C-alpha cells in the first residue's frame, strides 16, 4: 500500500473526478439548450397585457428566472471544483519528486568534485550550525543530505541513474483515495473504510432513490396526482354536458390540498352572492341548492368560487390570501384540464373509441379560463368571442350586434378602416384602444385542416382493416407569426396555445382518433413529421429517393406553418360513415374549425379487395353494376376469399375493375365552434 500522505493527496483528485464527470457534460448540455432555445414571449403587446405585468421582466424577475435551485446548485458545484483545482495545484507543488541533482543545483551527470562543492556550499547556507531556522534544518536533513548521499554512494547513484530512485527498482504501489484521518486510526482503518464504502456507495443512493420514488409514485409524468386521474376517470361520463364539466374539474386532489381558513368564510359568502348566477343552481329550489352547494368539501367549494371569480372578473375584490389561492388554482388549471381531456378521449367503448361531447366541454372550459370569459356568455350565441378582445364588455358587444355585425367572423372580415369607424361610433374607442383590438385580431389564428384516410397497400377500406389517418393542420395569422402566446391579460401565467385534432362520429358521440398539436416548437415538429413520413413510406415500399423527397416536402410544410397529425384506427363494420375532423384550440374562443370526411367501409370480400373507393362513396365498374356483382358472387362457389384459383381470378377481373381512390379527402369547411 502507498504511504498515508500519498493517499491523502489522492483524495481531492478523486472528489474532483467524481464531480467533474457528470457536471461538465450536464453544463454543456444546459448551455446548448439555452443557446438554441427560441424565445416564447411572442404576445400581442396590447395595453391590457402590458398592465398585467406577466410579460414585463423586471430586474428581480430576471434574477429569479436565472437563480433557480438547479442553477444555484450548478454554480456551487463549479465553485467547489475551482477550489479543488486550486488546492490540488498547490498541493502538487509542495509534493515534489526526489531529484538529487536539482536539489544540489547541478546538471545531471555532474562529477564527484562538483557534487562535493555544491554540498559544501548548501551546508553553509542550511546547516543547523549556520542557520538556526527549523525549516532550514528540515530541508538540510530531508533533502540536501539525502541527495548528497544518493549521489556519492556508488550503488545508490547507479540505482538512481538506472531506475530513477536511489533504492533501486520500485514495486507497484496502490493507494486509497481517502483522507488521512480515516486511515490513521490504529486497528480501525478497515472498519472505517467499510463504513465509508457502505454509506457512500450503498446507503446514500438508496435513501435518495426511496425519497424520489415515494414522491414520484404519487404523480404522473405531467405532475398530476394519480388520485386526480382516478377521480377524473370515474366521474367522466359520455353524456357529460359542457356546463357540468366544472363539477368534474374541481374534484382534483390538488384542489383538496388548498388550505381552508376561518377568515375566508365571510369573503367566500360575499363571493358566492356575486357569482351565484354562474353556479347552475336551480332557481326554483334555491335554498336547497345553496345548502347542497355548501355541504361539499370546503376546499372544493372554495376552488369553484375562486374559478368563477376569475371568470367574472371579481378577483379585484378578493383578500390577499384568497387572491394567492386563486393564482394557485389557475396555475394548476392547464395541466389538470389536459389530463381531463385525456380521460374523455381514452378508449372507453368496445370499439376503442373515446367520447366527443365531454372532450369539447373540457376544451370550452379551458378557453373560458384562459380568456376569463363567463360560462354563461357561451350560452348566448356569438357573444363569447367578442369578450376576449381588449376593452370589450357586454354593453359594447350588444351595441356592435345592433350594427348588423352578428358574428365574430364578420368582424374579422371587415377592413381596418371599417372596424375603426365601428369602434369609434359604438364604443367611443380612442386610437390606442382601436390599435389594441387590431393587434389581438392579428394574433388570433386562422386554422385549416386537410384529412386523408386509407389502408396502407390497399385500394379500398374494408371492415377490420388498420386505417391510417393523416391530417395536415395549417395555421396562419394576420401578423405573419406561427408560434405565439395568446392574448390573456386576466390569466396571471404564461400559457402556450395547444390544439386538439379529433376525428369523431357525431352520431355515436365517439372519437376515433385524437392528437395534441403545438406550433411553438418547430424543431420537435420537424422531427416528428420526418419520422412519421419515413415510417409510412417504408410500409408502402417506397425507394430511398421517394422517401427523401416525401420527407423534404413534409419538412417544408412544417416550416411554413403546418403540423402533421398521424395515427391509426380499426375500420368499423361495413357501411358509409359521415365523420367530422375537429380542430379545437384550448386558448382562443371562436377559432375552432372542423371538416367533414366521408368514409366508406366495404365488406371483406375479394371484390372489395380489388375494387376502388371514391370520395362520394360509389365504386366505379366497367359495365357491371354493384347489385349484379353481389348476385353473381352469391351464385359462385368460392372456397376461400383469398383463393388463388385461376377461374376465380378471371371472374373477379370481370366484376371488380374499379377506379376509385384509396384515400378519403376531407373538405376544409371552416366554421367557428360558436357558429356551429
Automatic annotation (TrEMBL):
Main location: endoplasmic reticulum
SUPFAM superfamilies the record matches: Chaperone J-domain, E set domains, Sec63 N-terminal domain-like
Xref: CDD domains: DnaJ
Regions of compositional bias (Acidic residues) in chain numbering: 622-650
Location in or out of the cell: Endoplasmic reticulum membrane
Protein function: Required for integral membrane and secreted preprotein translocation across the endoplasmic reticulum membrane.
Record-given protein name: DnaJ ERDJ2A
Originating organism: Olea europaea subsp. europaea
Amino acid at each position: 500500500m502507498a504511504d498515508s500522505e500519498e493517499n491523502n493527496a489522492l483524495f481531492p483528485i478523486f472528489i474532483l473526478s467524481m464531480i467533474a464527470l457528470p457536471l461538465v457534460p450536464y453544463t454543456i448540455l444546459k448551455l446548448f439548450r439555452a443557446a438554441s432555445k427560441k424565445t416564447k414571449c411572442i404576445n400581442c403587446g396590447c395595453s391590457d397585457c402590458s398592465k398585467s405585468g406577466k410579460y414585463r421582466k423586471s430586474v428581480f424577475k430576471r434574477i429569479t428566472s436565472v437563480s433557480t435551485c438547479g442553477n444555484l446548485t450548478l454554480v456551487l458545484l463549479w465553485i467547489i471544483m475551482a477550489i479543488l483545482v486550486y488546492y490540488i495545484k498547490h498541493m502538487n507543488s509542495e509534493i515534489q519528486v526526489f531529484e538529487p541533482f536539482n536539489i544540489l543545483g547541478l546538471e545531471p551527470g555532474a562529477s564527484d568534485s562538483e557534487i562535493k562543492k555544491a554540498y559544501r556550499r548548501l551546508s553553509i547556507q542550511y546547516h543547523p550550525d549556520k542557520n538556526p531556522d527549523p525549516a532550514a534544518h528540515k530541508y538540510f536533513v530531508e533533502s540536501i543530505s539525502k541527495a548528497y548521499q544518493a549521489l556519492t554512494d556508488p550503488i545508490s547513484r547507479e540505482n538512481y541513474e538506472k531506475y530513477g530512485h536511489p533504492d533501486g527498482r520500485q514495486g507497484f504501489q496502490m493507494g486509497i483515495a481517502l483522507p488521512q484521518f480515516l486511515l490513521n486510526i490504529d486497528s480501525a482503518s478497515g472498519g472505517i473504510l467499510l463504513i465509508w464504502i457502505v454509506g457512500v456507495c450503498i446507503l446514500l443512493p438508496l435513501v435518495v432513490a426511496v425519497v424520489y420514488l415515494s414522491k414520484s409514485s404519487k404523480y404522473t409524468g405531467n405532475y398530476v396526482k394519480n388520485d386526480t386521474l382516478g377521480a377524473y376517470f370515474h366521474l367522466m361520463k359520455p353524456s357529460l354536458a359542457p356546463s357540468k364539466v366544472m363539477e368534474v374539474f374541481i374534484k382534483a386532489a390538488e384542489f383538496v390540498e388548498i388550505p381552508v381558513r376561518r377568515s375566508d368564510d365571510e369573503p367566500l359568502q360575499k363571493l358566492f352572492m356575486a357569482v351565484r348566477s354562474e353556479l347552475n343552481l336551480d332557481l326554483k329550489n334555491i335554498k336547497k341548492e345553496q345548502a347542497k352547494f355548501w355541504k361539499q368539501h370546503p376546499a372544493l367549494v372554495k376552488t369553484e368560487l375562486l374559478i368563477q371569480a376569475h371568470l367574472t372578473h371579481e378577483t379585484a375584490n378578493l383578500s390577499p390570501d384568497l387572491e394567492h389561492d386563486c393564482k394557485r388554482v389557475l396555475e394548476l388549471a392547464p395541466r389538470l384540464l389536459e389530463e381531463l381531456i385525456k380521460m374523455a378521449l381514452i378508449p372507453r367503448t368496445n370499439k376503442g373509441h373515446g367520447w366527443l361531447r365531454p372532450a369539447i366541454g373540457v376544451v370550452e372550459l379551458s378557453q373560458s379560463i384562459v380568456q376569463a370569459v363567463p360560462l354563461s356568455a357561451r350560452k348566448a350565441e356569438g357573444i363569447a368571442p367578442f369578450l376576449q378582445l381588449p376593452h370589450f364588455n357586454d354593453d359594447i358587444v350588444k351595441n356592435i350586434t345592433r350594427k348588423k355585425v352578428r358574428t365574430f367572423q364578420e368582424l374579422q372580415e371587415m377592413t381596418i378602416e371599417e372596424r375603426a369607424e365601428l369602434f369609434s361610433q359604438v364604443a367611443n374607442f380612442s386610437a390606442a384602444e382601436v390599435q389594441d383590438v387590431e393587434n389581438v385580431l392579428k394574433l388570433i389564428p386562422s386554422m385549416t385542416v386537410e384529412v386523408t384516410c386509407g389502408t396502407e397497400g390497399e385500394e379500398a377500406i374494408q371492415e377490420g382493416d388498420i386505417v391510417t389517418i393523416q391530417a395536415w393542420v395549417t395555421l396562419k395569422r394576420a401578423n405573419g407569426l406561427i408560434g405565439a402566446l395568446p392574448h390573456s391579460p386576466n390569466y396571471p401565467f404564461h400559457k402556450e396555445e395547444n390544439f386538439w385534432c379529433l376525428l369523431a362520429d357525431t352520431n355515436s358521440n365517439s372519437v376515433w382518433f385524437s392528437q395534441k398539436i403545438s406550433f411553438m416548437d418547430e424543431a420537435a415538429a420537424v422531427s416528428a413529421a420526418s419520422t412519421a413520413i419515413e415510417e409510412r413510406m417504408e410500409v408502402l415500399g417506397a425507394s430511398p429517393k421517394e422517401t427523401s423527397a416525401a420527407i423534404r416536402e413534409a419538412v417544408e410544410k412544417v416550416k411554413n406553418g403546418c403540423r402533421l397529425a398521424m395515427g391509426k384506427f380499426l375500420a368499423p363494420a361495413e357501411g358509409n360513415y359521415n365523420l367530422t375532423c375537429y380542430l379545437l384550440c384550448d386558448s382562443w374562443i371562436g377559432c375552432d374549425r372542423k371538416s367533414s370526411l366521408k368514409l366508406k367501409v366495404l365488406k371483406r370480400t375479394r371484390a372489395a379487395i380489388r375494387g376502388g373507393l371514391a370520395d362520394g362513396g360509389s365504386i366505379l365498374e366497367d359495365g357491371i353494376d354493384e347489385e349484379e356483382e353481389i348476385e353473381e358472387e352469391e351464385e359462385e362457389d368460392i372456397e376461400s376469399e383469398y383463393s388463388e384459383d385461376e377461374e376465380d381470378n378471371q371472374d373477379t377481373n370481370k366484376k371488380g375493375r374499379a377506379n376509385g381512390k384509396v384515400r378519403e379527402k376531407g373538405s376544409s369547411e371552416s366554421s367557428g365552434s360558436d357558429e356551429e
